[in-house]
Amino acid sequence: MGAEKTRPFVQQRRQIIAEILREKGRASVTALAERLGVSQLTVRRDLDYLEERGIASRRYGEAVLAERSQRGEEPTEAGPLEPQKAAIAKAAAKLVLDHELLFLNTSSTALAVVPHIIAEGVTVVTNSARAQRLPIPPSGMILVTGGEIRPPRGVLSGEFALNNVRSVAASTCFVGCAGISLTAGVTSTTQQEATVNSLMVERSDRLVLLADSSKLGIGAGFSYAPLNRVALLITDTGATDEDVQVLLEAGIHEIRRVEPEA
Question: How many CB atoms lie within 10 A of CB 254?
């Protein structure tokens, strides 16, 4: 995908580190270096950058999620991929039909779809504890799965969540991911979230994957869907023609690239 070996780049590494910290709350420099295949010095530089942005706090030999991020506060400046994610979310919202029943996972890109839904009578089912912050779709509703709350991102998981997901048959599942790998498929950084995501995919007629181009070629740890299950991937124009061709050959049925918002 340009070949997976050429990724991640600096921006991608920093995003992955931030996502790991949001999922787990902390990570050692050694573990991050091994995970990303870079030196510990490179990781420390990335952590310096994230600390400046209020995302991470440095401690001896490790990094922890900054207190403002634990409280759910956004960084003072937009993340480097926010224009891409906003464009992807808006493109996804245009696909929603009146009276559809949708699954959305806890991905920030997936949740960003909801404010742009204009279809009537849509029901959104999500395992995000942050769903209370979302606007209700016109004449629609938002249902939360419940379950064990896993800070700092408010991921709802466990048997309670899974039992409620099993009771739903959705037309479309909009999910984000931590990475898309030719070998591992669609991935998440935690087993608990991957388990819920996998069941959402299973209980949906169509899987629409929302992933900016930094996720291409990344295996994030836990697989929750094979590439041939993806009916549509919406990504940004940072994905090259070669990326698209490789992913189509790997089984993704359709790929759309959208221009980042200005």
Answer: 11
Low-confidence ranges of the chain (pLDDT < 70): 1-9, 67-81, 152, 220, 262
Contact 155, 192 (CB under 8 A): yes
Q: How many residues does the chain have?
A: 262
Strand pairing category for 155-157 and 179-181: unpaired
Please tell me the pTM assigned to this model.
Answer: 0.74
CA-closest candidate to residue 104, choices 134, 83, 75: 134
In the 8-state DSSP scheme, what is residue 26? E
Dihedral angle over CA of 34, 221, 218, 187, nearest 10? -170
Asked if 209 and 177 count as a contact pair (C-beta separation under 8 A), the reply is yes
Which residues 6+ apart lie within 8 Å of 131 measured at CB? Answer: 111, 124, 142, 144
Q: Do the Cβ atoms of 246 and 1 come closer than 8 Å? A: yes
Helix (H) or strand (E) holding 73: none
Rounded distance between C-alpha atoms, residue 49 and residue 64, angstroms: 14
Distances, alpha carbon 62 to alpha carbons 35, 122, 223, in Å: 14, 43, 26
Cα 89 to Cα 13, 116, 221, 243: the distances in Å are 22, 8, 24, 20
